[in-house]
Specification:
By secondary structure, this protein is an alpha/beta fold. 46% of the residues lie in helices and 16% in strands. α9 links the parallel β9 and β10. The chain is globular, with a radius of gyration of 20 Å. The N and C termini lie close together (11 Å).
Length: 368
Amino acid sequence: MKFVISGFYGLGNTGDEAILESIIDNLRDQFDNPEITVFSLSPEQTAKEHNVKSVYRAWRHSNKEKVKALREADLLISGGGGLLQDSYPTKFLFGPLPYYLLIVLLAKLCGTKVMFFSQGIGPVKSRWGKTLMKLANLADFITVRDQYSKELLHKLGVTKPETVVTSDIVFAFKRKEDRSCIESLPIKGEEKLVAVSVRPWFGREVQFEQTAQILDYLIEEKQVTPVFVPMEGHHDWDASEKVLSHMKHKEKCLMLGTDFTPNQYLNFIGECQLTIGMRLHALIFSTLMGVPHIGFSYDKKVESLLKRSGMWEYSSVLEEINVEDLQTNGKYLLENHDMASKIITENAQSMRGEAVRNLELLKENFVK
């Protein structure tokens, strides 16, 4: 079969690149020599890293190549990830929501079938965004990564294609042994490592000071070594620096580089005793590796993941962080690591099965 994959690819976001790698690896597992084309902002890099064809994703150029790829494809895979949302400004043709839906419209005009694949939906709050979402009815089949997304789709009037709840396709990620991250750090191997993942969030910064207080407490009480994991390049690097600027013990912290692969970050998180932070896929990586985690939920997708991983009771909505509570929770999870890890590992197994279900549903609906 011939596939085109459309998503937030080629922009340096570790979570989205993990999604892409997982989709490609699993397509190759399920199909004999699938022909895969990825719409990417960095098409040459994407083509080289994944041994696929790649076309520039934006509208500035390569539009004839997009049309050609879609005409030749058997299926457009739209996803995964949180593509259909208007948290970022949605104007007439700009922003994620119109972009991904127009790609879907273009695919249908080319006679190509469409599957929304392992997507997280929302938020969609603007009037224009809600109007645009009606185009999602053009899809032939939809899988979403949580129940909230399915309910929101129906609320927005997307009812024509069948919608099935699965889980994030990264739960089907095929890990390869790689110690590049851990070997890049000046450590002896005896440290209690805590992965820290922070990100900017629309100018809000109080969480950086709160994170600093939690980390300082864990350094003093449990002698941990926090390691910042910048999963979206300089954006997360800058956010990590803001946390460090508030810390009393910043000299005890380390920072990974920004140029590691999703597989390398996944392997590193697996070496840690605890993860604290915001990035959804840092928390997914922690779940995959059985690492206890405390999440700061800035979006329903994070809350949904934390409930499914079993770590919601130790976590917090971003706007409701209570530093003392999370300090206590961090200490508890470090002291009861094996118990928490067992719960997470069992939940991860269930979500892994649901992730693979995305591929099974694809075959059931689109393979003749």
